[in-house]
Amino acid sequence: MSFHVYLSGEIHTDWRDEIRRGAEAAGLDVVFTAPVTDHAASDAAGDHLGETPSPFWRDHQSSKVNAIRTRTLIEQSDLVVVRFGDKYKQWNAAFDAGYCAALGKPYVTLHDAEIVHPLKEVDAEAQAWCTTTDQVVEILRYVLKA
């Protein structure tokens, strides 16, 4: 069975590569997709549409362009992994988790125990809470090979 997995959230560490490597080492048939992880490129996604009167409208314009990719890839995925790092508040990741919940799309969260409390509602809707990328790979192994 082939699986499509969308890797949402934190962009400042190599967690996506760890999951990809783990899935490959386990021989799993997984297609991984992700949002644009180049922060500057994401912020500028709508700049080609013209000047905006304020930073709010620039962000608004770019977020709508980014949503084309994000919504499409989440909807096409079989599972979404939502990573919350400890350095920045990933409001976009929380939104992606909520979008998954609204769609009935299975998702797992990936974060440290220190932020369990602020993520309690997000975790309550998730199919699993992982603290390591190895745990994510083990979920994929189980789902695909059990």
TrEMBL record:
It comes from the Bacteria. Pfam families: Nuc_deoxyri_tr3. This is YtoQ family protein. It comes from Halomonas campaniensis.
